[in-house]
Here is the input.
Amino acid sequence: MNVSHLKCSICNATYSPDEVRYVCPKHGNSGLLEVIYDYDSVKSRTSEADFSHSKDFSIWRYWELLPIEDRSAVPPLRVGWTPLYEAEHLGGGLGLANLWLKDDGLNPTGSFKDRASAVVVGKAKEIGVNAITTASTGNAGAALAGLSASAHIPSIIFAPHTAPEAKVAQLLIYGAHVFLVKGTYDQAFDLSLAASKEFGWYSRNTGYNPFTAEGKKTASLEICEQLAIKKPEHADAGWRSPDRIFVAVGDGNIITGVWKGLRDLRALGWIEKIPRLMGVQSKGAAACYNAWKAGTDTISPVDAQTISDSICVGLPRDGTRAVRAVRETDGAYLTVTDEEVLSAMRSLAREEGIFAEPAGATGYAGLVKAVRESLVDPDEEIVVLVTGNGLKDIGAAVRAAGKAQLVEPTLDAVRSSISSIRP
Ligand SMILES: [Zn+2]
Here is the structure.
């Protein structure tokens, strides 16, 4: 058994994985549990060198560090091992020597959330449940709907009625039962939890289910392994962590998961240092930034409004751990405007060929701001997470890129307007 115990992030009480399903009984919905492994046992069974022989190019290559026991429970869709691109053009433009982009828009349902849903669906299969439910701004729901479909488990999704049309279509095509809630994501979250209790559905709600962060941590494992493959410092080098990672923050569970993965790797001795984590929020949904700035772990809800719908969260459910992740790694929080996000979408697409949705480009928008404010050193090795595919929100893409030119079907018409085209 890989998992040793579950630990409350507030009181440090420990529980066996069979004892508690979701949160610390003493602390209710704020007592989020962290999954702790028997690291000595993991080390005795595998080392970082073993992975160079692995032919499993998915999150499941890290089996010893994941909370599933039964391999037959793993859902069939391939999740993870997304590309880590060296961003020479964008890096050059910003005066950065070592910039990397991790494109998680290439997961099966187009977002980072597939990592969490793959693990939760595996767990659901293992324990045997009648259905899985989640609240979602869109991506977590699509991830759950897709992964559940592949595992033949019914899914029930609660999303705010403002979710972009493409995301809702994605939920429906996978056969999920979709409730569009006449309210905010935060209200959808509470309704989904209540429905889970009332009807006995397994809850994937972010943070509330301890295994979402375990899925999300696989991005860190990949980054540290891929950096060593792409640029080994010397021939026998082990895995390598970057100096900083930029992460868009909504509910706070991605940055929490990224932090957890790094701590797992350090506990195993597979990396030497924990990178500084840079949390990037929209100015219009900045509850974690506010708490970090005020020097507190207590999250005060805000009235959330931003073009980046995936991180449009008023009360981040994993906010306390998300603030700690930044504070304890000596990172920082930044906020960006919608205009800065639209500009980041254009830059990622035009300079590196990566089409991101607004939240997916928010991490990069944060990097641009950090460079402008001299928060990063030009020689640092920096990784930016791109968390979602641009096709998920066509309306935002049109806002970023504008409309195409209409032309008469004649060469003359083309000739008269090509002066602006330059190689
Ligand atoms: Zn507790």
